[in-house]
Design goal:
two-stranded antiparallel sheet; globular
Length: 734
């Protein structure tokens, strides 16, 4: 009955205690054999295309021919690395009903939950509060559960929100426990039909709405009224925000809001620990962004509760299944699992996405398809949220760091609080192995991928589990500028991994295994998609404007080879997307956004990385906004792309839209009015038409829309001005 350990290693998921009952199973996906056969056939087509390029270069070497060769070599490299995901994809299933045969509830390991937030205006505190409340209400022993909130912006507004949350938790948690509700995020629960609420639901909702109003009022005003402060202890806590206190320069702030064994809910049950933390910062010392915040949480939690298991969550990624920890224990408590199992990763699933997912926010390949492929190898990457880790993996395999362990003292005791403050001073990590050999790893803006990569290089394994009911639900960017800024930031971080001394293509393929190394190489070299996308978005179209054929004629054998490469890649991508629960409109928007990123954020991110390498200042780290304005939300639901700001990220998009439109119309005109042969130009006309169809939302934003989300006129005019010299340059090149 039991499936093999797969990426997590180990045997079949059976234990002596369970007398043959499986805690978990795994199976290979049906498409695996087809993937392997198709890979061989497609590889032959790639070699044929490259052979055709070299034949052309043998007769004459031109810059245009070299650019097309470069584009196809990059496409071939990215295709080859992507095949690693398709060789051993698996899916898993757990049986939590068998867990009681393996361990008693009293034997469950402690669980420390880390929630990270930074900016109360971009990440509204009421959203972070909902995330915390949803995990505090887990079906897990309260005395074994602790929630730590890292406020890296050091905002007293966030602390105030969690003081309110601590009071509300005394009512919300027993309501969830008594009625066994599945939706334990208050905001999501109270959005549901009131007829589904249980006795007392109206009163609980009123409490929640009152709390929400107070929190949002405080955030809007930017200050905390004395009317909202309930005790001398709260007033004392807020007094730490003195005149010299800034988000980038302040001493550590730690506030124990709830302590298990001391604080109880309204029914007399103990509440889980709830701790607010803002680590110390100095403007002259590096703070290492999110990785630094997570390491501060590791150290503080080690001094207070030191739970063996850690869950990391983004501020907006709330729990959607109260039994998620029990599902994880089906792996962590199975003695047949590989002792090098480091973490269990759940997919990122987003709510609030419009029906056709215009921004490709679902990112089905990154968050669902590819992790399932890596699960059959050494395990998936850490996705930055929704990962359950053994604490010991961050301390070289030991259960805890001896310098941090404090024993089982009350977390409000002076000794524990003093120790906790010491380990989050701004200079604590100086001359230590934090960020290199201990904790989450420094050296890349994509600390999640880099940390999991280095852990796998050290021999650790991981597991990907995608249950029918999503374990977590989060929010995605609701406007194109935020979305592209996010991927621009990722591009810099991914290149930092690709070109470090531990590059996956040279180091990872040897230290982990060939296929896993190629998977990490695919991620780290992701931004180079910008090279072929940009070349194919401009060169064939500019050649068409000059009535120059750059692709094989229709009656040529090579025409069919090119068509097979295009349709084969797109067809496989489509089948993967649909078989994973996607829809045709979502797939179409997903491939469009892939091209948008390639032209915009990947290209600009690549330039930014180069500038960073030569010592020129770059844009720096930006937090993606989770706040949504009402009018933007309405346009998002209608499937309208949100532009609105005059950003350089939009220039490549509008320039591409103009060139493809003019090129397509010019190609049709040449065939109709000049009575030219269509055979040599067909592929270029089709490519320009394909680009034009994908650019329709951009044309709409440039010309047809009058709302605030339209393309700024400045961007349109600059693109028109740039298009003309680009055409003049092409007339010389061709």
């Amino acid at each position: 009955m039991g499936g093999g350990g797969g990426g997590g290693g180990g045997g079949g998921g059976l234990t002596d205690q369970s007398q043959g009952l499986a805690l978990h199973t795994r199976e290979q996906l049906p498409r695996t054999t087809a993937n392997r056969v198709f890979a061989v056939v497609y590889l032959c087509a790639i070699f044929a295309v490259l052979y055709h390029h070299f034949l052309a270069l043998f007769h004459s070497i031109r810059i245009v021919s070299l650019l097309f060769l470069l584009a196809d070599v990059v496409l071939a490299f990215m295709w080859a690395t992507a095949q690693a995901f398709r060789m051993c994809p698996i899916r898993r299933k757990v049986f939590i009903e068998h867990l009681q045969d393996v361990a008693k509830e009293s034997d469950y390991p402690g669980l420390d939950v880390f929630i990270c937030t930074t900016d109360p205006y971009k990440e509204p505190p009421i959203g972070v509060v909902n995330t915390a409340l949803s995990v505090m209400a887990y079906d897990y022993p309260a005395e074994k559960l602790s929630v730590y909130v890292s406020d890296d912006g050091g905002s007293k507004l966030t602390l105030f929100a969690f003081m309110e949350a601590a009071r509300f938790a005394a009512h919300w948690l027993p309501y969830c426990r008594r009625n066994k509700i599945e939706e334990r995020c208050p905001e999501a629960y109270f959005r549901s039909n009131p007829s589904s609420w249980f006795l007392g639901g109206d009163e609980i909702k009123l409490m929640y709405e009152n709390m929400k109003v107070r929190v949002e009022t405080v955030v809007r005003r930017g200050t905390i009224s004395h009317d909202y402060i309930n005790s001398k202890q709260e007033l004392e806590a807020f007094s730490r925000w003195s005149d010299g206190f800034t988000s980038q320069n302040h001493p550590p702030v730690i506030q124990v809001l709830l302590e298990c064994g001391t604080d109880e809910d309204v029914t007399g049950h103990t509440l889980p620990n709830l701790v607010y933390l803002s680590r110390g910062k100095n403007i002259n010392l590096p703070h290492n962004f999110k990785a630094g915040a997570l390491n501060a949480l590791l150290r503080v939690s080690a001094t207070m509760t030191n739970a063996p298991v850690i869950l990391t969550l983004d501020s907006d990624m709330y729990s959607n299944d109260p039994q998620t920890p029990l599902r994880v224990l089906c792996y962590l408590l199975d003695p047949s699992m590989d002792p090098k199992l480091a973490y269990v990763q759940f997919p990122q699933i987003f709510n609030g996405i419009n029906e056709t997912d215009i921004y490709g926010s679902e990112a089905k390949h990154v968050f669902q398809i590819h992790p399932a492929g890596m699960d059959g190898l050494a395990g998936p990457i850490y996705l930055g949220t929704g990962g359950f880790f053994w604490r010991k993996v961050f301390f070289g395999g030991q259960l805890e760091s001896s310098e941090l362990k404090q024993g089982m003292k009350a977390i409000r005791s002076r000794e524990v609080l003093a120790s906790a403050h010491d380990v989050v001073q701004c200079n604590f990590e100086s001359q230590t192995q934090w960020g290199t050999k201990m904790g989450f790893r420094y050296g890349s803006l994509v600390e999640d991928m880099y940390t999991s990569y280095m852990l796998q290089c050290e021999g650790w394994k991981s597991i990907f589990y995608n249950p029918k009911r999503p374990a977590f639900l989060g929010n995605s960017p609701s406007n194109l500028h935020d979305f592209l800024n996010q991927t621009r930031r990722w591009s810099v971080g991914l290149f930092e991994v690709a070109f470090c001394k531990y590059s996956p293509i040279t180091y990872g393929t040897r230290k982990i295994n060939l296929l896993s190394g190629l998977c990490f190489a695919y991620y780290s070299f992701w931004p180079i998609w910008s090279i072929p996308i940009t070349i194919y978005a401009f060169l064939p179209q500019l050649a068409l404007l000059n009535y120059v054929s750059v692709f094989p004629k229709v009656n040529s054998f090579w025409f069919f080879v090119y068509m097979f490469c295009f349709l084969g890649a797109y067809g496989q991508d489509y089948l993967e997307f649909i078989s994973s629960g996607g829809t045709i409109p979502r797939w179409w928007n997903n491939q469009r956004i892939w091209m948008v990123r390639g032209l915009s954020s990947f290209s600009i991110g690549s330039v930014e990385y180069i500038l960073k390498c030569i010592g020129i200042s770059t844009f720096g780290f930006n937090v993606t906004s989770k706040a949504v304005e009402e009018e933007k939300s309405k346009r998002h639901k209608k499937g309208m792309l949100e532009f609105g700001v005059a950003s350089p990220l939009f220039l490549p998009l509008t320039l591409t839209a103009i060139i493809n439109l003019v090129s397509f119309l010019s190609g049709i005109a040449q065939v109709l009015f000049r009575q030219g042969s269509i055979e040599g130009l067909l592929l270029q006309i089709l490519l320009a038409g394909f680009g034009m169809v994908n650019c329709w939302p951009i044309y709409e934003a440039m010309v047809l829309r009058a709302d605030e989300g339209k393309m700024p006129l400045k961007i349109t005019l600059v693109s028109i001005v740039l298009a003309y010299p680009l055409y003049l340059a092409s007339s010389v090149a061709f």
